[in-house]
Amino acid sequence: MKAIRMKVVLIAVMSLSLFFSQGVLADQKKWPRRVSVGSASPGGGFYLGASALAKVISKMPDHRLSVSVEITGASKHNVQLLQSRQIDIGLAATEVAWEAWHGQFAFENKKQDRVRTLLPGWPGVYMFVSLAQTGVKSIRDLEDRSYSVGPRKSSNELFGRRVFKALGVQPNLTNLPTSDASRALVDGTVSGFSIAWPATVVTQLETQHKVEIITLNTKEKEIFSKAFPQYVYLTIPAGEYKAVPEAKSNFGLYNLFLCDKDLPEDFVYALVKHVYSNVNTIAAVQPKMKSGMRLANLKYTTVPYHKGAAKYFLEQGAKIPAHLMPVQ
């Protein structure tokens, strides 16, 4: 009799296991086999972040996934590509994401309603980078000078143009990719370029040149803040660069991984779970993501979370502000 009961229990367990296994397989049939991640130009933080994420999610267990990193025009372009369903995941700065979601500023009357937050990436602080030999030590010193504000439609370009407009400064602006801008600065073709900390290109410049990191002063901060209140004020830690022996503050952002709202909920849940199980692997490619991805930083996004991502975070005991909870 006991043997019969054990046999019945074993059959029940095997049946239940098969049920769940078939259920998972059935769900996975709806999962994408190819995923594209929108980044920016090579050499910047977005490209490193996208590469780090791609490296990890390409090795999701029990699911064969081909992941490509797309070179794009960064934040605004990535949001537009997500909205038009040309990419599945894309990086965007918080202020660009906010404007896209609300249909304001750069997205005036063009609300981008397909985007959802996948996970927070890392904080960034906008910098105006120059060399000591140029004599540029302030924003106003860039008047009539050649200056690269970054790739077209990037958050660096938007911030730079807005700063110059708010302060009434008129440089001769260009839109060079990060690596080209750095070479142009050394060659004297431009007097500076915009980038957000953390950026390895600045560290590389400092190996052979004396770099100047320029930020807004107190008066300039007040003027800009009134014109563009969606920006946050953050700090570059002391010692991050030779040019920053003491902590230096400026307007900044939080770099977000956004995704298409129609990605399957169970797929996004599995993806986010896998990513957070491999933070050290990600940090090996983009070190700032290790601290940036802490659950305490979930509040920094400006777009509601995808249902699958929220499910994982809530299971981990994280708190998601009400206005960032998933929507239809």
Description:
The longest helix is centred in the N-terminal third of the chain and has 27 residues, at 2-28. The protein is globular, with a radius of gyration of 23 Å. With 328 residues, it is of the alpha/beta class. It starts with a helix and ends in a 13-residue tail after the last helix. Strands 1, 2, 3, 4, 7, 8, 9 and 10 form an 8-stranded mixed beta sheet that branches. The chain has a two-stranded parallel ribbon with strand order 5-6. It folds into 2 domains: 31-124 and 254-324, Periplasmic binding protein-like II (D-Maltodextrin-Binding Protein, domain 2), CATH 3.40.190.10; 125-252, 3-Layer(aba) Sandwich (D-Maltodextrin-Binding Protein, domain 2). It has helices at 2-28, 45-57, 75-83, 94-102, 155-167, 178-187, 200-205, 218-227, 265-276, 279-285, 289-292, 307-315, and strands spanning 34-38, 66-70, 89-93, 115-131, 146-148, 172-174, 193-197, 211-214, 232-236, 248-260.
Order of SSEs, N→C?
Answer: HEHEHEHEEHEHEHEHEEHHHH
Which secondary-structure class do the elements indicate?
Answer: alpha/beta
- Whole-number tally of structural domains: 2
Looking at the chains present, what oligomeric state does this protein adopt? single chain
Tell me, what is the CATH class of the largest domain?
Alpha Beta
Mean pLDDT: 90
Q: Profile the largest sheet.
A: 8 strands, mixed
The share of residues in extended strands comes to 15-25%
Shape: globular
CA-atom Rg in angstroms:
23 Å
Helical percentage:
25-40%
The CATH topology of the largest domain is: D-Maltodextrin-Binding Protein, domain 2
Q: What is the β-strand count?
A: 10
Kindly, what is the distance between the CA atoms of the first and last residues, rounded to a whole number of angstroms?
A: 54 Å
Residue stretches low in confidence (pLDDT < 50, at least 5 long) are 1-26
Q: What is the number of helical segments per DSSP (H or I, 4+ residues)? A: 12
CATH architecture verdict of the largest domain: 3-Layer(aba) Sandwich
| CATH H-level superfamily title of the largest domain | Periplasmic binding protein-like II
